[in-house]
């Protein structure tokens, strides 16, 4: 009879925490929302990746606005990300879906973020410093 204490099958032992637990949905969404505080990352999303032209991505960003309200907003370390989230959603509200299923009317968004982003970040830092 095998000894339960010497089990080397690699199966997780009931009652013991997993060595590498997967992040929760809360953690994944918090990390993504806070990544929006990084203007270089937002610029990358809008210039290198085409997901931002997807109606699904538009809906996802709109869904993430719940982070702007307590108790979720109290978990935010980089509040600038909420400004960028609302800014992106504001631009995407006017976008329409074309016959290919992609959003139209957002062609200037990457350029605006690239040019204005650093200035917005500096203004927000000044606001938080006061």
Characterization of the model:
It comes from Saccharomyces pastorianus (Lager yeast). One of its GO terms (biological process) is regulation of DNA-templated transcription. Pfam families: Med31. Keywords: Activator, Nucleus, Transcription, Transcription regulation. Residues 1-11 have a biased composition (Polar residues). The chain is mainly α. It has a single domain, classed as Mediator of RNA polymerase II, submodule Med31 (Soh1) (Arc Repressor Mutant, subunit A), CATH 1.10.10. It is 49% helix and 3% strand. The protein has helices spanning 25-35, 39-47, 55-63, 80-93, 109-129; strands at residues 96-97, 103-104. Strands 1-2 form a two-stranded antiparallel ribbon. A hairpin with a 5-residue loop joins β1 and β2. It is globular.
List strands and helices in order, with pairings.
Elements: H1 25-35, H2 39-47, H3 55-63, H4 80-93, E1 96-97, E2 103-104, H5 109-129
Antiparallel strand pairs: 1-2
Helix pairs in contact: 2-5
GO cellular component, one term: mediator complex
Family: Belongs to the Mediator complex subunit 31 family.
InterPro entries: Med31_sf, Mediator_Med31
* Termini gap: 70 Å
CATH superfamily: Mediator of RNA polymerase II, submodule Med31 (Soh1)
Query: What does the average pLDDT come to?
Result: 83
Our Rg estimate from Cα atoms comes to 21 Å
What is the percentage of strand-forming residues?
Answer: under 5%
Sequence of strands across the biggest β-sheet: 1-2
The number of helical elements comes to 5
Organism: Saccharomyces pastorianus (Lager yeast)
Main location: nucleus
Keywords: Activator, Nucleus, Transcription, Transcription regulation
Biased composition (Polar residues): 1-11
